Amino acid sequence: MKQFIQDLSEKNHHQATRLLQILRAIQSRYHYVPADAIEQLAGLLNKPRTQIISVVEFYSFFHLQPKGQFEILISDSITDHMLGKINLTSYLARQLKVAVGEVREDGIVSLDNTSCTGMCDQGPAGLVNGYALTRLDRARIDVITDLINQQKPLAAWPVELFHIEDNIHKPGLLLKQQINQGAALNVAFKRGLKETLAEIDKSGLRGRGGAGFKTAMKWQFCSEEAQSERYVVCNADEGEPGTFKDRVLLNSFAHQVFEGMTLCAAIIGAQKGFLYLRGEYLYLYDQLQCILDERRKAGLLGIDILGQGLNFDIEICMGAGAYICGEESALIESLEGKPGIPRNRPPYPVTQGYLGKPTVVNNVETFLAAAAIAVNGGDWFASVGTAKSKGTKILSISGDCARPGIYEYPFGTTIETVLMDCGAANVMGVQVGGPSGTFISNQEFDRKLAFEDLATGGSFIIFDESRNILDMVNNFTHFFAHESCGFCTPCRVGTSLLKKQFDKIVEGHGSAGDVAALEELCQVIKGYSHCGLGQTAANPVLTTLERYPELYQDKLKKISYEPGFDLDGALEIARRMANRTDAGAHLTQVGEDHE
Amino acid sequence: MANKTRVATVSLAGCFGCHMSLLDIDERMLQLAELIEFDRSPLTDIEHCTNCDIGLIEGGVCNSENVHVLREFRKNCKILVAVGACAINGGLPSLRNFIPLEECLAEAYLDGIGVENPQIPSDPELPLLLNKVYPIHEVVKIDYFLPGCPPSADVFWKFLTDLLDGREPSLPYELVHYD
Prior knowledge:
Chain A has helices spanning 2-11, 19-30, 35-45, 49-58, 78-82, 85-96, 138-149, 183-191, 193-203, 215-223, 245-252, 254-268, 285-297, 328-335, 364-376, 378-382, 415-421, 469-483, 489-506, 514-528, 532-537, 539-547, 549-553, 572-577; strands at 70-75, 102-103, 109-114, 126-128, 131-133, 168-170, 231-236, 272-277, 302-305, 310-318, 359-363, 392-399, 405-410, 427-432, 438-441, 459-464. By secondary structure, chain A is α/β, with parallel strands linked by helices.
């Protein structure tokens, strides 16, 4: 192992910023990060051992204790649940003879849950040693079980297990036609970079990650910074449950995304770019590297791009299972090899981003659109959409509909239109924008996709009338409690309390004041959290409480109070150890005055 | 003096520090005594609560007896108040929540240094420990919370005088600002 770590560190030039990539390699080889490896890395990277441990502990895909040689993770998105994930996971656990959350005794296989893996249109989904599995069913599980018990290396597994569909059902302005390789850069250099930025400004393009900051303004600000070392970062940490459009864009439109990044580099004057790819999309890594190589050979990346004196290259950095790294400042921290804890803003990344240098961070779809705008002009893009939201939005549609997949719509399209197109019937409601977004009921389907009405990063999950809304809220609320980065108290403690209080009500232990207490807790988390995760973590409860208060009220008991935990059960250990069986060794769940 | 406001107090899994802090209102105690009388409290040695207006609970819930006492207070007090960090969050005693109860009991009664005649005490008279220390609002309904470790004398004074004057109690920022 010593030699392996030594070589690995050397390959990464002993740079502490490369820590995530180094740890990924160690985890992949040893199925955990051994204490000796950490000790050795501390010396090689000149970074305190404790800081390396904090990184290992922060990311879901790193482990201090050994996992199985085959590490299986099952996606825990609500869409996977809707496709029968629970039954399937217990079947898998039975077949493999390993409990969820455990490593099998022989160390061959381990099984656990993981947050949404971005395969919502082809779930139930999972990961095996980081590689995406789709459309899991009993037949596939039987095959997988055999392969694991025979200890067949992944390379020898049937490829159809790893087959992933694009499912583009409705291409629009952007998806109908890819630009030719180099077209955006050629046009931009010919037209002039200033003029090209003006076109992007004219297009009205706003960030597609969800927040909607004007792209041209961001690039302009960055280019005006005094420091000349600048960076371009493409945020492909698509972690919002129900979102998978970036996966499709990087699978089939990667050239154009990289071209958008290169265009940005030309305009802001950057030499280096990063694609921060979520760990769940490991299967895209090799093909993306090939595309980067192709572009280097074509003179579209590297030294003196297109003979215009632009030097720029792109590096792919992989995440390791942390939803919070989709937040741009947390992403930058992660790129620097640290835990993904959001920074204080301001200063914004455009002034102090990667390594404290001016940095543009944009979503995959934003770079894709910017490249198309450079070719086709600002008016082309601005000709569709609404006054405040120009152009189109690419949606990832999943849940109860006939044709889940990718749909591109002009902004201003009504929810009703979307539901008709994807073949959704008897719809109860739609979660727009993922767990951090908004739940809308079937009374609101005349609302529009637009920053001024329903802003969304692209997640669109449909629930029909057979679904229980509280199951969805339960899934989302547990998701946030799991993904809270732990930095600020309102979010770290708040999301856990919220989970507990919600469960208490749903499990039937709630009484008169409990819904009010739930709402109060939501307001504290929303109002006092450090970043967007905490500020939106209570949305699933708040938006459903507003629309279906009776769902919550009906769960309440007609007594003044009941504990949310099993009071008598809490005495069990002491009772057993003291050998007590008398009446005084028991407690009733509710006090006598409550009948 | 039948119309005095009746107040009961108790310390569950607490250190009596909150009670000491209440006494720190010093000479204002005389003013308070004009308006209230104590029912069950360490200050009176009355063993059980009768009908009260206000119940002040210090400390969290660590054993079965705490549960019974807390329920007695809830039954008899119109307004029940969680006083101090332990009542609100479990506080210091809840540090044991990170250690399994089996290990705690084994350390104290079986394997600890200097333990003679090792055995887990077993007597119907003894309350059993809960697996964890719980904040009191997870066991009964609580109406108000006084933060602090302990809440300062001024917090007690402001809270009680608000209630006695018929105002909705509120604590200004200065009284709940700790750094």
